[in-house]
Specification:
The complex is a heterodimer.
Chain A lengths: L1 H11 L7 H38 L1 H33 L44
Chain B lengths: L14 H9 L5 H21 L2 H17 L10 H19 L16 H11 L5 H18 L2 H12 L4 H8 L3 H18 L1 H4 L2
Classes of the chains: A mainly alpha, B mainly alpha.
């Protein structure tokens, strides 16, 4: 019984609405909201854009910026061409750059490899003391 | 899901077709989606926040968010499930942030038709002073709903107020039907306890 009463009570909340006028005007309000959002987004970057425009208009910076742009484009072209030629060489089965030998790091092996201990031959006469050998 | 009723001039095509139109560049088709869902989403958000101003802001943000993410909508679920999920997640995030938690008395400020007034009066008639009792009951109900966790409140709003089925709620809330049933069970138990003095009479 309580459950039914509770459900009835909760269902009544469905009828809580702000009135048809609100919904009639909601779409227009939503359009205004979207426009405001778009303007806000645009305005966010506007100071930076203005600063950049002003920066580029100054005479010494304009030249520097132009040179910089040319340098960047050239660098990108060089890198792009390099990649292209390497790719085409691989495709044809000819690699211009020989494969580098694999370098094994000491830290990779897990244990630190020690250089071999010097071996001494005891009980023999050192060569420098051998009178039969003349230098 | 209630049967779709169309407004005068509204294209009688499913939501998914309207989404396709928007994605093909006919942006004004989105207006029909807004008109189709504004009242239902308002109700869900409102019963979660219990505040008209917050609901208005969240509803705008929900439709705007959905519009921006429309290209990510996959047609493996219905559009209404998708947009309800956005609305619910956005509202829960808002509540978790605790941005502006204003739980106003709802029914007094919003329009309630005469039938509702009568039903509330019936429910609180036994107390004698009907008007005072009704306001008290509304207060108590809103207060009790406020004390539920966000997930429990969402389940109650979708099941008891919006009249959705467990499966639909599970899809919207991204959980199993068992979880929905469990949340409803605990929420009902709490509400029955909180409103015991009215419900037992």
């Amino acid at each position: 019984m309580n459950e039914q009463k509770l459900q009835k009570l909760l269902r009544l909340k469905k009828l809580e609405t702000p009135g048809q006028d609100y919904f009639d005007g909601f779409l227009a309000e939503f359009h205004r909201y979207q426009q405001a959002q778009m303007l806000r987004q645009a305005a966010k970057w506007e100071p930076w854009r203005a600063w950049f425009r002003e920066f580029l208009c100054r005479e010494p910076y304009r030249t520097v910026a132009s040179c910089g742009a040319v340098a960047v484009v050239t660098a990108l072209l060089v890198i792009g061409l390099g990649n292209f030629s390497r790719h085409s060489a691989k495709q044809s089965g000819f690699a211009r750059t020989p494969a580098m030998p694999k370098v094994r790091l000491v830290s990779d092996s897990g244990t630190t490899e020690q250089p071999p201990a010097p071996r001494y031959s005891t009980g023999q006469t050192p060569l420098s003391y051998d009178k039969t050998i003349a230098f | 899901m209630a049967e779709q009723t169309f407004r005068p001039g509204e294209p009688q095509i499913p939501d998914e077709a309207l989404v396709d139109q928007v994605l093909q560049g006919e942006v004004s088709a989105y207006d029909w989606l807004v008109l189709r869902y504004q009242e239902r989403l308002y109700a869900v958000i409102y019963h979660m926040t219990a505040n008209h101003e917050d609901t208005n802001d969240l509803l705008m943000e929900t439709f705007d968010k959905a519009f921006r993410r429309l290209s990510s909508y996959k047609k493996n679920s219905s559009f209404y499930t998708w947009i309800y999920r956005i609305a619910l997640n956005h509202t829960v995030n808002h509540l978790n942030r605790g941005r502006k938690r204003r739980y106003d008395l709802s029914l007094n400020e919003l329009s309630v038709d005469e039938a509702t007034e009568q039903e509330f009066a019936d429910l609180s008639a036994v107390t004698g002073a009907q008007a005072a009792a009704r306001v008290e009951l509304q207060n108590k109900l809103n207060e009790s709903l406020k004390n539920l966790s966000e997930s429990q409140r969402a389940a109650v709003v979708l099941f008891d107020i919006e009249g959705m089925g467990h499966a639909e709620i599970a899809k919207i809330m991204h959980c199993s039907e068992g979880t929905v049933r469990s949340r409803l069970h605990y929420a009902h138990r709490y509400l029955q306890k909180a409103l015991a003095s009215w419900l037992n009479k």
